[in-house]
Amino acid sequence: MKKTKLLHEVRAVKSKKELENIIRAQRISEQVLSDTLKILKIGITEVEVDKFIKKSFIKYGVSILSFTPIVSFGKNTANIHHTPGKSKLKIGDMMMFDIGCTMNHYCSDMTRTYFFRKINKRQEKIYLTVLEAQEKVLNKIKNGERRAKVLDKTAREFLSKKFGASKFLHGLGHGVGTVIHEWPNLKKGSEDILPIGCVMTVEPGLYFKNFGGVRIEDMILITKNGYKNLTKVSKSVESAILK
Hints:
Elements: H1 2-12, H2 16-39, H3 46-59, E1 70-73, E2 94-99, E3 102-103, E4 106-107, E5 110-116, H4 121-142, H5 148-163, E6 173-175, E7 182-186, E8 199-202, E9 205-208, E10 212-215, E11 218-223, E12 226-229, H6 237-240, E13 241-242
Parallel strand pairs: 5-13
Antiparallel strand pairs: 1-2, 2-5, 3-4, 6-7, 8-11, 9-10, 11-12
């Protein structure tokens, strides 16, 4: 058991070349997301957007995705692992895009939540709460906290206090490398310690059945002095409202 963990720990720390591949994959994903936001219109379906995303990755020279894209509109955003369907985009809809691709076998991972044309007070409160939870975790990492269970607890307790314990339904994050989920794990009770040089996701979320959900996911590099955010897509509430 100890031997296996040691291999995981060695694998988690990324070389300069490995990191370059992860960042390149992320930059392509960001370009695809940017292109995708430009085609959104009333009546477009999740499936149509999903097809566009996959074609866009091919256009930018990507042959293998990190995972099947998650594209969800409206109430479907409450489903963490939603499969794109025939739901059509409407004004006021929440939209969630969870995408990633590979570069020389190394993965990227990112989630952004948007609001089509307008946002209501409940949607805004949920969004800002998730964003604040993520910022609280990032500040802990910035100040040297490396214990996975402490970081997960930081987000979980904050979100539970605001909306109840049953609305944050998954772990806070995971390592990223040649597979999309690798050691270490940011989840409840995890005994993992984040090593300097590993790449992690930080992805708090809130999900409300028959209403919708918000997840904001960044990919970060753990450094000696805290972290470096490898995700360059704005997540302010202003940028999340697509006019």
